[in-house]
Fold this sequence. Notes:
Layout: E1 4-8, H1 12-25, E2 30-35, E3 39-44, H2 53-63, E4 67-78, H3 79-85, H4 93-111, E5 124-132, H5 139-163, E6 168-171, H6 176-181, H7 189-194, E7 202-209, E8 213-222, H8 225-234, H9 246-254, E9 266-269, H10 276-283, E10 287-292, H11 295-311, E11 324-326, E12 341-346, H12 360-385, E13 386-400, E14 406-408, H13 411-417, E15 420-422, H14 443-447, E16 449-451, E17 458-467
Parallel strand pairs: 5-6, 5-7, 9-10, 9-12, 10-11, 12-13
Antiparallel strand pairs: 1-3, 1-4, 2-3, 4-8, 7-8, 13-14, 13-17, 15-17, 16-17
The structure holds S-adenosylmethionine.
S-adenosylmethionine binds near residues 243, 330, 347 and 349.
Amino acid sequence: MHHFLFVLGSNWRLSLAELDNYLKYSQNKGKIVDYSANIAIVEFEKLHQDRQYINKLMEIQFILGGCQKIAEIYDFIDIKTIQDAFPIQINKFRYVEKSRKKILHIIDNLIIGKQGIFPKVYESMFFATSIYPNLYDDKYYSDILVKHFLPFLNKEIMEILKQKGAEKALYYQYPEKNIKSGNLNPIFPHHIIKYELLSQNRAEIIFGFTEEGVYIARTFTTDDPNFKKRIDEERPYKEFESAISPKLAVIMLNFLNLFENRENKKILDPFIGNGTIGLFAILQDFQIHGSDINNQKVKNTIRNFYWLLELLEEEIPPFINKRVLNHDARNLSDAFELDFFDGISTEPNLGPFYKKKPYYTQAKELLDMELEPLYDEFFREAYQILKPNCRICFVSPIISTVDGNDIQVNIEKLARKNKFRLVPLLDLNRINNKINQKLKFGKQHVKTLIDAKKGQIIKRKLYVLEKQ
Length: 468
Ligand SMILES: C[S@@+](CC[C@H](N)C(=O)[O-])C[C@H]1O[C@@H](n2cnc3c(N)ncnc32)[C@H](O)[C@@H]1O
């Protein structure tokens, strides 16, 4: 059985949910069979039988917002063998030696061959070893895996390659100070491109841990974060304070469940601002429409769209400047036809950009008087212009207050009132939940997920709603 390892984005819960949704609804059906805070192990129903499956993996990589790399798995070592080979305290040396031999035997068998990590021996070979722990704050990672397992793997794999006939075998050397401190990031996607680790005589070899053990895999595709960053940072108009991240924009588009014939799918961002969601929708081939109450924002977005289409060297679609309207989201049905859109992805007005936490009463007034009525009217209108059974992916704020309590709009209630069903972001029946509290999903966790940095005053909460 072929399995693949997906390296998750920094918001791993959201990345996992995005991946599960993709595997459930796209043509490339499959299941997440194991996971940690860094990786997901995926079993596809059919994809691996396709001769062009590497191309398909590249397509999947491009579509997903929360996936850093995709690797093919060659073998698995259970956690007990690893812990026997690399114990926290060495009591029984015999065990250590025996288990290390077992690990080496496994690696020796999978490193070269038609079904191996390298298809054959090359004169000059290069590899980078990446270890993804179960959790980064795991002491076993910083004390043992980084300081002992990683050097062991590098040295032994290099030896094996030489024994098998490589004249030159080198490995990627992480900065010594990071190894000593146990604070190490596996190599970044842009390094994979820089060191040409996707070519045949070079490889990134991933050792991805879960509670069950370690999966050994070779990277086949990687995200191109520089390109997304370029779109985000170099576009003519931007406002970092109020814009969502490229990753979140792409994830939000994917939760609309429109994976096939994207070029025919009409989607709307009715609070388009400077157009982050719109730009990534163009990149992902959708027919994007937008509107905003602020005419300057409308002009900015149109300018940004032209800029991106030129960058992509794509033909400018006719009437692109008519696709973004100066319009109030509270009466969308005046501007758009009924049952017109296949999906709506949007980040509405979230309130002022607070530099200091507001008082509870202040935030409550904002929610009650401004945001809740705005969202309510928007949902009512969205119902009219959305096709049946289609979805809204919506961001709502959680505001931290000085008095200590977080406050938010009850989106589930508003959705129900306007005949939308709240779709849980992750289907708990589809994953094997974990024992570790930090990794476990509770029922409440999966209804919605949060995208926020530590200490952020306004956190973004993601909702998926379906027209009933
Ligand atoms: C948080 S910003 C969206 C930012 C956007 N995601 C971006 O990347 O630039 C919210 C936008 O909603 C717009 N807005 C506020 N109230 C609105 C309304 N009633 N109808 C339409 N747009 C509105 C604001 O002008 C602002 O551009």
